[in-house]
Amino acid sequence: MNFFQSEFYGLFAAISIVTLVTVVILRRNSESTVTSSSCRSPLSPAHEWLARLLGGLWVLDGLLQTQPSMIDHFANNILNPLVSAEPIFLKVIVIWGIKLWSLNPVLWDEFATWIQIGIGLAILLGRSGRTRRMGLYLSLVWGLIVWISGEALGSIFVHGSWLVGSPGSAFLYALAAISLLQPARFWISGRARRAFQWSFAALWFLSAFLQVLPSSGWWNPSTLSAYVESMAEMAQPGFLSAPLYIWAHVLNIHPLLWNAVLTMVFTALGVLWLAKPRAPMTWWLTVFVAVATWWLGQDFGVLGGMGTDPNSGAIVLGGLIAYARLVPGMVWQQDHSSKSQHKTMLSG
Questions:
Q1: Domain that holds residue 66
Q2: What is the pTM (predicted TM-score) of this model?
């Protein structure tokens, strides 16, 4: 362990102790408040599920930022590759980010770690109160900062594809935060369901557009297979990398055909979310494609020692589960008490 890593982990341990004490105090206060007030949260189960998922993802992202390689190689291995071929305004932003990070990588990595863990804990522990809303506002702001300076707008201008996570997990975090900041009536009146439907349709149409766009480079014969093979070569268990090597080999046999197939699949999902958004078939096909591409394209995002988040597949799958809880009968029936509660609140 070098000097920078020792300094980082020493500071991390000190902040961890302070954070743990703070969390215990806040948790006790929260429990006493809930005990003293018998009222139940008017927010839907879908809202609570999405909030817990978003909070958990932020905590995970913060913990991933503590990987030893992040301290020494984050700027060169993660930020530097974003500079090439991007529009000039993005180049300027990313270059400034690299310069700021290089001034003190230990403190910046510590800050990135704890701002993300802090956002996650605020959302998880805040329930439906002021602390959660503060966490959601921070999630929105920090998500957009990461999306612009750390993800280069999700690579939508250069080699953009759902396979690499476009339009970017941080952008999807920000969208989730916006939806969670909406009032209770948004979640129980049908507007949340329609917002999810339009969002999924837009996601898959954008994915099809990026996949077919010549400037993205996916029509080049070796681009798809080379990209998947580069994912397979990252440090990870063999049972995860073996299917990637097989997939890369298959892509290499008929690369243009497979790119056309991916484009048609994404387009079909977009059409289904417009035409039959409440059909179980639409939901299950989307789950299948999201899981398959999260593994065989995004490689779960966290592997290899330099992953900063689980990539876009995780938040999209979480959004699909939240949507299913807004549509009774799609995947599972809501319990009778939940339905009665929603009817009572709507009539009131």
A1: 3-34+43-335
A2: 0.88
